Amino acid sequence: MKSITRQKPFNEIEQQLEDLDRIFIVGCGTCATMTRTGGREEVLEMKNRLQGLGKMVTGWIVIPTACDEMTEVAFRENNGAIQDANSILVMACALGVHRVSLYIGKPVIPALDTLFIGIEDSPGDFHEVCAQCGQCVLGETAGICPITACHKGLLNGPCGGTNNGKCEVDKEKDCAWTLIYQRLKEQGRLDLMRKYRPPKNFQVVPRPKVARIV
Fold first, then answer.
1. Residues in the chain with pLDDT < 50?
2. pTM of the entire structure?
């Protein structure tokens, strides 16, 4: 499971850094490297672009995993360059940005937008597999999530727009409920297709989400 990100438009990053002229850049060696949004190459490219704007880049680092405790260790090892900066530009997922903000009192600026949690199908191709909704129905849908696999997020499908197993929203995409039907048929569990599922309670886990493991 990886955090899938994309780099913000450079003009948006430029606007966020408008009044900040000394920047330390943080990349991530895991998810952002895999999605080519915050690995070594992307960090160095960002460094050059910022310097082209007349910004001073006091230093940079690609933390093995920017969202875990390695962030604090990396910050101690680069304390001098970080103290010279008046802002931190983070090329990692939102969790990485949050983690960095715990250890530094300077402005922390995200360079990426976090899209979803997903898995890699083939090199460079990712898809969302879990919306972390707190109300899992995978046991009744043969392991295929209708919230993330169906464009409409239908809990009772397929809709009337499916055609030859394809989705009406994206005709190149397989209909999620056709896939669910086929897998349930293989498992001899087609009776589950007739089961009515009530509308999803999107407040089953109130925000901000918290969990306490005893």
1. none
2. 0.78
